[in-house]
Design brief:
This protein is of the alpha+beta class. It has 16 helices and 46 strands. It has a seven-stranded parallel beta sheet with strand order 7-8-6-9-11-22-25, with helices on both faces. Strands 13, 14, 15, 17, 18 and 20 form a six-stranded antiparallel beta sheet that branches. Strands 26, 27, 28, 30 and 32 form a five-stranded antiparallel beta sheet that branches. A hairpin with a 4-residue loop joins β2 and β3.
């Protein structure tokens, strides 16, 4: 919400109480069409003027604290939300609201204050000072009053760029959404069906689906012609979620090693479908994923994590957050700028918000034009959409595209520094206000307002923009997935190009438009609309290709650098700023995937991963190719479609993989990599001991597409006193998929401490752009003890907060071990059951598939134990996580509950946690990453093997250790 200006009277605060305000609003009972004085194109009705005046009274009467609160939240907190007709306050039936709290710093004190206020923490971003929380509406102002809180906003919403076969329908009840349990049952059933088919070795189990975009983009021919498959490249996606990842992997649609950031698996399956598209076109590219839907700040954090922690070379998303500014790179675009500056290629959906050329737009931007029509009892004049052509203060929304439409208003002030105050109103055909957004902008806020049309739409809805105070600015008004069209009562619709906004319009991002690969989109975008185009499949794209009628257009005018510096100081009008040519390229949609609900998969959500996959092929065949040259290749080889030359809704045209690879001179590249060595001590012992000399057999495998010639290895050790002989060996020529082997000799000094590993660095050189590759191996020193020492958590049960990144944790002190040779972890219990309230299991929870468990060693090293596995199954009890277990816990389904037995963890425990001294405090943490379920950590234990100590002088050599009995022992 906006801060009250010093020149506004505060005597207008609701002195007569809420009832008087509601009477003034005229919204206690929605005015009937015949009861109101109808508005005209250049004036507000009497009802609208009364309503706006009353709403402005709320605005003018705000305290300093209330000025930090979103306008609709404030009205809801004052108890007026239910009475305000069609107001989208976001307050749940339980009286809570999901908010984004923008703070100067996210501190433990802030999180504790939120928890004390009854908030559920949903996402935390330290970098961007943002917390998403579900907060009792009555506590909103209490949180806003904190000195470290800058603003409390309605949670910034997002949507993907998937075009639905059945959109929201005006005036009709929608089918109920799939419940959490129904989804879990469906996914578990699909996975079981796949596993059953594989066990019967049926033909259906061996027939993966391939996107028609593979053929339409000539990617299939390009892989054959140029011999590149995506090897050496990691391509990562951000979307809603990867619910069906395990099912897609079981079908063979995705590889088994998709790198999903722990706790960022998300909710939904658009991410799974996007990954399948990438894998179809670039089948040997490594894959990664993180959700974009926890919050806007979390999305930005995850973009950075995919590059700087997961080392993704190509990143693609299909998401737009409504708050993203068209005029300045906000936090999400800034994250894109960070990763592209580091060399990553970034692709994003242009959006499905329509374009002027196809008559499907709902976007207007331009300079504010003063209509001369004052509004309400305070300052303020309405914008004139007609400009020089007349005077019209309304923008009409099409009846057929009016259901549940987010409407955003941005203007050309810098983010966090807007001193010009504009407001947004939605009215009906009778001239009554249906919804509004009127936050305060007095120098420290964002130039942004948002409202949403009624869930079931309406007839004759229209928008009005009011300049409450300040200077004229360049405006951007968008009804996302709606349409501006002439109304039945004579209002003319005004549309301009440029609806592509946000991080898709970042300078170095690729904004991707859509064209159908195969069948036409299956419904008219509006009743009676023109037919949608069909694609060329089984042929390939050509100059005859037509873009989807819903694909968003550009260009994008930007007035500020990311830090708020004006691009054209003193000119933030239609002649100022920088114009970015967006979108750049077009790619396929309307393709098949194996994911339920995404066959076919339409929208620029499907187009962007096709483009990203082609970029992965380019990098695979041209390792180290600068991003600028990739951009040049994609744009210069694109096949021109639609309007001759570059246009504002298909960019340079549709891309073809064979043309891009030919332009860049792609060729199959070798990728020779050292693999895990085997160690054979010269004394015939089973372990490498201090003072030993041993043979190290080092395999080198060519994981690439091309032959590795002149392959050699230099093997060194940074461990003091260790010698390696010879230092280098030739491996000669290694064909793709083949392995070469050589032996080296190492000598370990007698002074080497037990448990302190010998580190070997292998540098593999060969003729190719990926050369050299480096690998590091740790060789344990000492004889592992057969005795596992047990260390159990002995404290009280700890509640796991629902759907909170804060999570719960317990500590386990360890002593007397020294270095660890083996680490296993158990979730214990005395009596196992599926009762979610059981107190006799090791970890009770009503939906284990919500949970991510992490084990942290005293050194700070971490390993993920389990990661959103088990679906709706309940409880972990007498289960051991061991690196050498035959079956991974990632394969469990709800049918396995309660989860017992021995399983392989998500990440190796010994390999990740045993490098340093085991003595100290270990921490086991659990995060519940989805809503609606609860549980407790009750009984868990560590089982750590150390190393056999040499016998003391004079002691008999046959002394054996005694095995301690613990809660649960690994098999």
């Amino acid at each position: 919400m906006r801060r009250t200006r010093s020149n506004r009277s505060r005597t207008t605060v609701l002195t007569a109480g809420a009832a008087a305000l509601l009477a003034a609003l005229g919204l206690v009972s929605p005015p009937a069409a015949g009861a109101a004085t109808a508005s005209t194109p250049d004036s507000f009705s009497e009802t609208a003027q009364q309503q706006i005046a009353a709403l402005q009274a709320v605005k003018a009467g705000r305290t300093a604290t209330e000025s930090k609160v979103d306008s609709k939240l404030l009205v809801a907190e004052k108890g007026l939300g239910k009475q305000l007709n069609a107001l989208q306050s976001g307050v749940s039936a339980g009286g809570t609201v999901v908010v984004d709290i923008r703070a100067s710093k996210v501190s433990p004190d802030l999180l504790a204050g939120l928890t004390k206020a009854g908030a559920g923490i949903r996402a935390v971003s330290d970098r961007y000072g943002s917390v998403r929380a579900e907060l009792p509406v009555g506590k909103v102002s209490e949180i806003a009053a904190r000195g470290d809180v800058k603003r409390v906003e309605q949670a910034d919403q997002a949507m993907t760029a998937r075009e639905l076969a059945a959109p929201a329908t005006t005036g009709k009840e929608q089918s109920p959404a799939e419940t959490k349990q129904q989804k879990a049952d469906r996914i578990a059933g699909e996975l079981q069906k796949v596993l059953s088919a594989k066990s019967r070795r049926s033909a259906a189990a061996a027939a993966p689906l391939v996107s028609e975009g593979d053929r339409a983009h000539n990617a299939d021919l390009a892989r054959q012609q140029f011999g590149v498959t995506g090897v050496g490249v990691k391509a990562c996606a951000l979307s809603d979620g990867v619910d069906s990842l395990a099912a897609s992997q079981a079908k063979g649609e995705l590889p088994p090693d998709v790198d999903v950031i722990a706790g960022q698996e998300g909710d939904g399956d658009e991410g799974t479908a996007m990954l399948e598209i990438i894998h179809d076109l670039a089948p040997r590219a490594a894959l990664g994923f993180a959700s974009a839907f926890n919050s806007d700040a979390s999305f930005a954090d995850n973009i950075r994590k995919l590059r700087f922690e997961s080392h993704c070379d190509v990143i693609v998303d299909d998401v737009i957050y409504f708050k993203e500014s068209p005029f300045q790179d906000w936090i999400i675009a800034q994250a894109v700028n960070d990763v592209t500056a580091d060399g990553a290629l970034y692709f994003s959906s242009a959006g499905n918000e329509g374009n002027v050329a196809s008559g499907t737009a709902a976007h207007w931007e331009g300079d504010f034009a003063d209509s001369g029509k004052s509004v309400g009892k305070f300052a303020g004049t309405a914008h004139n959409f007609a400009g020089a052509a007349g005077n019209q203060i309304y923008e009409p929304i099409s009846n057929a595209s009016s259901a549940g439409v987010p409407v955003t208003l941005h203007w050309s002030d810098p983010l966090g520094a807007s001193a010009n105050d504009y407001d947004l109103y939605l009215l009906n055909s009778a001239g009554a206000v249906v919804s509004f957004s009127q936050n305060v902008q007095d120098g420290t806020q964002d130039p942004y307002e948002i409202l949403q049309t009624p869930t079931f739409g309406g007839t004759g809805l229209r928008l009005a923009v009011v300049k409450f105070s300040g200077q004229n600015r360049y405006l951007s008004l968008s009804a996302l997935r709606g349409r501006f069209s002439d109304s039945a009562d004579g209002l003319k619709a005004y549309n301009t190009p440029g609806v592509t906004v946000g991080h898709s319009a970042a300078r170095d991002a690729f904004s991707v438009a859509a064209a159908p690969a195969a069948k036409a989109f299956g419904r008219a975008l509006e009743p009676g609309g023109p037919a949608n185009p069909a694609g060329p499949y089984p042929g390939s794209f050509s100059g005859a290709t037509k873009a989807e009628r819903f694909t968003s257009d550009g260009p994008r005018r930007v007035f500020y650098e990311a830090n708020g510096t004006p691009i054209t100081p003193g000119n933030v009008s239609s002649t100022g700023g920088e114009v970015r040519n967006k979108p750049e390229i077009t790619a396929a949609d309307g393709v098949q995937t194996s994911v339920t609900g995404f066959n076919p998969f339409f929208g620029t959500s499907a187009a962007a991963p096709h483009a990203a996959a082609i970029a992965a092929l380019v990098l695979s065949g041209n390792p180290g190719l600068p991003p600028a040259e990739v951009r040049e290749a994609l744009i210069n080889t694109a096949v021109d479609i639609e309007t001759p030359g570059r246009d504002n809704f298909t960019g340079a045209g549709v891309i073809l993989a064979d043309k891009v690879l030919a332009y860049t001179g792609a060729s199959p590249q070798p990728l020779a990599v050292a693999k895990q060595p085997t160690v054979t001590p010269a004394d015939g012992g089973s372990a490498l001991d201090p003072g030993d000399t041993a043979k190290v057999t080092l395999p080198v495998t060519n994981d690439g597409d091309g032959t590795a010639v002149s392959t050699s290895v230099v093997l060194t050790s940074p461990t003091p006193g260790v010698t390696v002989a010879p230092r280098a060996k030739s491996y000669g020529t290694i064909s793709p998929g083949q392995t070469g082997v050589n032996d080296f000799t190492i000598t370990v000094p007698a002074s080497q401490q037990l448990g302190v590993p010998v580190v070997l660095n292998a540098r593999v050189t060969f003729a190719g752009s990926h050369s050299p590759t480096t690998s590091t191996f740790s060789l344990p020193v000492g004889t592992p003890s057969p005795v596992a020492q047990d260390f159990a958590y002995t404290g009280a049960p700890v509640a796991i907060p629902d759907n909170s990144p804060v999570g719960a944790s317990v500590t386990i002190p360890v002593s007397g071990v020294g270095r660890a040779s083996r680490v296993t972890f158990s979730v214990d219990g005395t009596t196992c059951s599926t009762d979610p309230a059981s107190t006799t299991v090791g970890l009770n929870h009503s939906y284990v598939g919500d949970l991510v468990g992490t084990l942290t060693a005293p050194s700070g090293a971490k390993a993920t134990v389990f990661q959103r596995n088990g679906g709706s199954g309940k409880n972990l009890c007498q289960v051991v996580f061991a690196d050498d277990a035959a079956t991974a816990f990632s394969t469990v389904t709800s049918a396995n509950a309660p989860f017992t037995g021995t399983w392989r963890p998500a990440q190796a425990l010994t390999g990740n946690l045993a490098g340093a001294a085991a003595d100290g405090t270990w921490t086991f943490g659990v995060v519940d990453a989805a809503g609606g379920d609860t549980g407790f950590i009750r009984s868990v234990a560590l089982h750590i093997n150390g190393f056999v100590q040499p016998p003391a002088a004079g002691a008999p050599s046959n002394v054996r250790g005694v095995t301690n009995n613990g809660p649960v022992h690994p098999l």
